[in-house]
């Protein structure tokens, strides 16, 4: 009887040690608020958007740089009438310099661009990533992965529209928040027909957006 009791105590002690040795994960709502505040102080970032499968969104791929002032440059691949068109752009102030696969650069106003997609809003403190994180519903921190917290959470179509235009319903997605800086590193969104992932990197690196050499 004594031997059995000692074995039970030993197993209980080992279980307690193994379960108590891991890092305690932060509460989801607290982490989202901290991440939103961190994103509002960002001065610049590199962004990348990629799709898997055939999600019903016009932006299929994008890579570029952003500044907190609203300037941006890079490339965007859009689906237009069933075909993919890659567009090179430089958004400076109220002017958008853009060109397709052929021909030279043309100009749009920022307001005209916004009817399609305005990537500069990603860092907008009132409409971009910060607002997306702050308004996230039922965030649950699932694990720590590679220096970031993985968080399952819900988003409304209104807040997602700034990041991924064409989303017409709420989405339960996953975000990764850097442990050291509380900044967002990645978003994954399962959509009908496929998924969209958005990654952010190179925070606060020096960025100067200039007109293309051939722009008039």
Automatic annotation (TrEMBL):
Family from the record: Belongs to the LppX/LprAFG lipoprotein family.
Residues annotated as signal peptide: 1-20
Location(s) in or outside the cell: Cell envelope
This protein's name: LppX_LprAFG lipoprotein
Keywords, sorted A to Z: Cell membrane, Lipoprotein, Membrane, Signal
Main subcellular localisation: other
One Pfam assignment: LppX_LprAFG
């Amino acid at each position: 009887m004594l031997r059995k009791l000692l074995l039970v105590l030993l197993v209980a002690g080992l279980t307690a040690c193994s379960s108590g040795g891991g890092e305690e994960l932060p509460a989801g709502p607290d982490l989202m608020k901290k991440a939103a505040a961190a994103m509002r102080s960002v001065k610049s970032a590199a962004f990348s958007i990629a799709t898997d499968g055939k999600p019903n969104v016009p932006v299929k791929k994008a890579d570029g740089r952003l500044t907190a002032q609203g300037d941006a440059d890079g490339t965007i691949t859009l689906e237009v009438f069933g075909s993919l068109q890659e567009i090179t752009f430089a958004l400076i102030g109220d002017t958008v310099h853009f060109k397709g696969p052929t021909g030279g650069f043309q100009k749009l106003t920022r307001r005209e661009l916004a009817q399609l997609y305005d990537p500069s809003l990603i860092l907008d403190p009132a409409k971009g990533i910060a607002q997306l994180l702050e308004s996230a519903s039922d965030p649950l921190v699932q694990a720590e992965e590679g220096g970031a917290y993985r968080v399952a959470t819900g988003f409304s179509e209104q807040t997602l529209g700034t990041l991924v235009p064409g989303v017409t319903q709420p989405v339960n997605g996953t975000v990764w928040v850097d442990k050291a800086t509380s900044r967002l590193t990645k978003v994954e969104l399962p959509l009908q027909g496929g998924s969209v992932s958005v990654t952010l990197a190179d925070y606060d690196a020096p960025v100067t957006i200039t007109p293309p050499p051939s722009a008039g």
